Every structure is written in C-alpha cells, then in structure tokens.
C-alpha cells in the first residue's frame, strides 16, 4: 500500500438504495444533499461521495440536479468531490456517466465489474410507505444487475481519465481486483489507485474479517505500493471494518448511503454524526486523519479547478 499512513475519511451522503420511508434524516433535496456534504466535510471528511435524487426521493442521474448542489459544496468546502458512475440499478451507461461528463469532478467511483445488486429483502421490513414507488423499487432489484464489462470499464476510464478525473475503484469481490490489474496491464489505468473494498451488499462478498484480510493480501500482491485501500461495510459493521482498515494504514467510508444508523436501533440524524464518530475513534487510537489536500497529494489528484 502507499506509504501514506493517514486515514482518508469518505462520506457517502445519500446513495441510491435507501428510501425515504427508512429514515426521515436521509438527504433528498439538493439543499439537503449540499448541507449534508458540507456538514460531513466540516466534521472531517476529506472526500464526499455524491448521488442525486428527485423530490420524492427516487434516484436520478440528471446532471441538472447535480448542478444544484455540487457547486455549493465546492464553494463551501475544500473537500474532494466524488461523483458516482454507478447511479442506480436499471440506469443506462450514458445516464450513469452524465453527471461526471458535465461536472468533471476530481474523482468518480467506478464499479469494477458486472454484479447482481440485490436489496429486495429490505422491502419485507416495512408495511407502510411514504411514497408509492419505494416498495416496487426495492423488489425490482431482484431482477436487475449492474453491467460493467471489460469494454465498458476500458471506455469509462479512458474517457473520464482524459479529462483529468481520477477513480475510486469499487471492488465488491476479489475478481474485481484482478479486473483492475487487467486495466493496469493494458495501460488504461495508472496508479496510484484508490481502491474501495466493499463488503455486505447482496451480490458481492459478505461481511467477515477473513474477507477483509483476503482482499488486503490480494491487493498487496497485485499492486504493492501503487494503491491506497479504503473500506466500506454495509450496515452494522460500518464502523468496525473502517477501524480495521485504518489500523492497516487505509481509509474508511461512512455515510447514510451505507448505513442509516449511528448505534444499534438508533438512526443517525446527520452524515456529520457518523464522520465525527469515526474521526474521534481514530484519533483516540492515534491514527491521523487526512485533510482534503493531503488526500489529493497521496492519490495524485489533479486538484480543484
């Protein structure tokens, strides 16, 4: 791994899976997303990972919606802006790339392979819904999948990379690390790589400490000192896996995209609340937390424009 030894905190403020019924604190409107990201940055997040939503909470990839909050975040913070290219299940590739093409952020996320991405089981937890679309949206994920073929990966990295955008390579399984190595071997992707190890989403690898060890050992073998690992774990393991990553010199992702809770059966009121918790834990363990500019330097980002 990179000889950096600081924890880059990423905050994923809203995502595209959780629905308004699940938490009254989920940011929906552009104002709420902007406020959530700004609050997370003020609490210590070096990177803010962004999705967009329509007024009723449905995910959208419309650049015009992103344009209502991304400039505000840039103006109010020094945080690294990271825009999703994953969007939501069912979106076309052009839809998924539209915001990144329009806004040319420093960083974008990129799923490193085609995966089933199921969250249909969450529908059984609720009997009443705030909006009519929510239940069917969740259930429909049983039949949908995210397609990122080798041709798609090469095209996205080539196109967005030409604009100076860097990548958070999201790996949901061990094979995704080998997909990234393929992109490096053919000269499409160049380090240093920010690799997000992802655990706990149905269709990807499960949440177990042995899986994190396997990910780490594989990445070390494939990339040596050319990568920086960050870790996200969906649900109740969010903080624990983050601490394990930071203890090895890596980063951690928190935020309401990945977990709606701050403690057992206690909803997080803000994204900043989660950032504050993980920052305080790391500081008590004497693990230094990276500033946005330190993250930029370590990951060789192009910087703010």
UniProtKB/TrEMBL annotation:
Keywords: Metal-binding, Transferase, Zinc. It comes from the Bacteria. GO terms for molecular function: 3-keto-5-aminohexanoate cleavage activity; metal ion binding. Its cofactor is Zn(2+). Pfam families: BKACE. PANTHER family: 3-KETO-5-AMINOHEXANOATE CLEAVAGE ENZYME, 3-KETO-5-AMINOHEXANOATE CLEAVAGE ENZYME-RELATED. This is 3-keto-5-aminohexanoate cleavage protein. It comes from Devosia ginsengisoli.
């Amino acid at each position: 791994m990179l000889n950096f030894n600081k924890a880059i905190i990423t905050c994923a403020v809203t995502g595209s899976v959780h629905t308004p019924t699940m938490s009254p604190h989920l940011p929906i409107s552009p104002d709420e997303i902007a406020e959530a990201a700004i609050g997370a940055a003020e609490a210590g997040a070096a990177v803010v990972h962004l999705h967009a939503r329509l007024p009723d909470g449905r995910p959208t990839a419309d650049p015009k919606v992103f344009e209502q909050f991304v400039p505000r975040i840039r103006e109010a913070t020094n945080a690294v802006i990271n825009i999703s290219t994953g969007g939501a299940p069912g979106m076309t590739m052009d839809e998924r790339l539209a915001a990144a093409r329009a806004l040319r952020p420093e960083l974008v996320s990129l799923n490193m392979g085609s995966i089933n991405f199921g969250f249909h089981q969450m529908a059984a937890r609720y009997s009443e819904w705030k909006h009519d679309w929510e239940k069917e949206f969740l259930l429909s994920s049983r039949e949908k999948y995210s397609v990122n073929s080798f041709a798609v990966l090469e095209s996205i990295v080539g196109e967005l990379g030409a604009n100076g955008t860097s990548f958070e390579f999201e790996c949901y399984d061990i094979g995704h690390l080998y997909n990234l190595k393929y992109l490096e071997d053919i000269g499409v992707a160049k380090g240093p790589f920010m690799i997000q190890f992802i655990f706990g989403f149905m269709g990807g690898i499960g949440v177990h400490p042995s899986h994190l060890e396997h990910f780490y050992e594989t990445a070390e073998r494939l990339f040596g000192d050319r990568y920086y690992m960050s870790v996200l774990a969906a649900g109740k393991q969010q903080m624990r896996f983050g601490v394990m990553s930071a203890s090895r010199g890596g980063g951690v992702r928190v935020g309401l995209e990945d977990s709606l809770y701050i403690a057992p059966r206690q909803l997080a009121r803000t994204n900043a609340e989660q950032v504050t918790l993980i920052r305080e834990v790391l500081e008590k363990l004497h693990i230094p937390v990276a500033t946005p500019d330190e993250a930029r330097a370590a990951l060789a980002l192009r910087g703010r424009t």
